[in-house]
Description:
Blueprint: H1 2-21, H2 29-62, H3 68-92
Amino acid sequence: xxxxxxxxxxxxxxxxxxxxxxxxxxxxxxxxxxxxxxxxxxxxxxxxxxxxxxxxxxxxxxxxxxxxxxxxxxxxxxxxxxxxxxxxxxxxxxxxx
Length: 97
């Protein structure tokens, strides 16, 4: 039962991450897919770097290796936070002055 519960929560986290990554253009499916892929590729290095830093800190403090599924969850959680903030930035049209 625990394994099924972990799989379901991981699937939900992945869906939320992908939902926040979508850049929707009404009536333009190709443009939506292109900008969504570009968004994921643009933000992924930042999220991967953050994940590496968090995992190293956790491993040093715990003294043990972190399982892969936990690393994936850390990546997705950081990705959700970054995508949410970047999506708000794009939506609100914040411009530097």
